[in-house]
Amino acid sequence: MKKIAIIIAILTSILSVNRLYAQGEAAVPFLLLAPDSRAGGIGESGGGLADNSAAIFWNPAGIAFLAGSEISITHSNWLPQFNLDLFYDYLTYRQYIEEIGGSVTASITYMNFGEFQRTGENDPTVLGTFRSFDAALTVGYAAKISNDWGIGLNFRLIHSRLSDKGAGSEQGEGVATSVSFDVAAMWRPEHFNIPFIGDFGNRISVGMNLSNVGPEIYYIDQAQADPIPTNFRLGMAFRLMEDDYNSLTYTVDFSKLLVDRADSNSTGEKDKFYKAVFTAWADQPLNEELRDIVTSMGLEYWYGTPEDFMFALRAGFFYEDPSYGNRKFVTMGAGIRYDIYGFDFSYITTDVFTGGENHPLSDTLRFTLLIGWGNTSHQSSKGFPRGI
């Protein structure tokens, strides 16, 4: 029989950014999952690129530079090495509305843990079954505040259903609900002159996203509440080459979890989320704080024209310090665009680091279908999309 506690422990240990959180100090780790195939193919680095509807996750401010509309859906069987039938689906939508001077956005994230059997506390007799899942509904708004700057704001409703009843003598249900918000900014200059090198306008993009800022979440006992995974992401994208038919873009992201540790102060009490956003930057020595930063990067190559047919090849690398999670993997991916339709997929491999041994993240595939109409990003042939 599957054990839900084992699944949650596996998810937390693999998705958490810090070894302390692998022990359960950060709840709902599905909020850290890289949800889409395109960014998944470039090492899970999307904070600086952020030029499709999945920017709702990576950097919602990137949507400020887009016009038109787009809808996409992503599916992935997660942690295939465990054969636990875990999967997640990710649905996004964006719509530019001229009357409000920006875009409204929405996404639904659904992480399915499967069906479980309920037994007595000391009795193997099956008393019933239940389904376990995590889900989040996000709505947002993105707009330009100048030609070169965009901002994005998200509000999120989080629902976690691990069990419909408490375990053993515990009363209540293993169900929890909370909320969070994101605030993001994007700098995408039309002109950026570097002395003796040239104008990098429309070829460079820098974004910042503070996500999942919100109160702690608890299931049965409020005294055992855990923080949600507040995260800061700094992303950059550089258009290395572009002509009528070809473009090559380099992306790099740096991210850090901003959750206080229980033993970070003399009282042993955790700082509230609105304090931890600031105190989590300096609750360790500087060298440890730097090691706590996750680095991801990638390259994306496009061939074709928006008026005809385009295809992309992608590759990336994800690195996490061995003392702070030790996730290291290579990603690959591809995509096509034809008229208003698009398809992307990505693949994770850890074999180059594990010597071919099975790893929970190895062979993870993501598939994304999208439809974009109006003046969408992949219909702009020069530089980063600037929308209206």
Task: Fill in the keyword field for this structure.
single chain, 388 residues, mainly beta, Porin, 14-stranded antiparallel barrel, two-stranded antiparallel ribbon, 6 helices, globular
What's the layout of helices and strands?
Blueprint: H1 4-15, H2 37-41, H3 55-58, E1 69-77, E2 87-97, E3 102-119, E4 126-144, E5 149-163, E6 174-187, E7 193-194, E8 198-199, E9 204-213, E10 231-242, E11 246-257, H4 273-279, H5 286-291, E12 294-304, E13 309-319, E14 328-338, E15 341-349, H6 351-354, E16 365-373
Antiparallel strand pairs: 1-2, 1-16, 2-3, 3-4, 4-5, 5-6, 6-9, 7-8, 9-10, 10-11, 11-12, 12-13, 13-14, 14-15, 15-16
Structure description:
It is a single chain. The chain has one domain (4-379): Beta Barrel (Porin). Helix content is 10%, strand content 45%. It has helices spanning 4-15, 37-41, 55-58, 273-279, 286-291, 351-354, and strands spanning 69-77, 87-97, 102-119, 126-144, 149-163, 174-187, 193-194, 198-199, 204-213, 231-242, 246-257, 294-304, 309-319, 328-338, 341-349, 365-373. The strands form two sheets. Strands 1-2-3-4-5-6-9-10-11-12-13-14-15-16 form a 14-stranded antiparallel barrel. Residues 16-24 and 378-382 have low confidence and may be disordered.
